[in-house]
Amino acid sequence: MKSTIQVRLSQASDAAQLVAIDNSGVWTPANAPLPLAGKTAAEFAAQNPPGSHLVAVIEEVVCGYVGFRAPTPLPSNAHVAQLDIAVHPDYHRMGIGQALIEAAKTHCAAQGMRKLSLRVMATNPKAIAFYKSCGFIEQGRLIDEFCVDGQYVDDIMMYVML
Fold it and tell me: Could you confirm whether the keyword Acyltransferase appears in this record (predicted)?
């Protein structure tokens, strides 16, 4: 039996489960230029107020999230949302990432945004392929932007118009 994925705006009570996703091993040197694990629920909640993420829930378990925020504080950039996304490893290959991206497109368009953007390290080909399957295209590349474990890594900027 296939589990039903529900996507909704984040709530204050989700902070502990969102931190658990970040601490699940989802972030590695291959996909993040710095460790993202180790925050407490209170630290996460202070940096990410309720409603700043869409969360995927299966049987009352928050198993993934997509955050969206303005890439800069400039009013002239307010039509763009920069995304970050994570799905707990126990829930990979269940359509959660796709559901989150589609929900982010719908939510951000309803908020008047015209463009979604994200950044992905070149050492993460699975994520790049996933984003392309969701309609994102490369709009730029910062060459050797990060040095992770002694290796220089490009930072790829991708976008999709809404």
Answer: yes
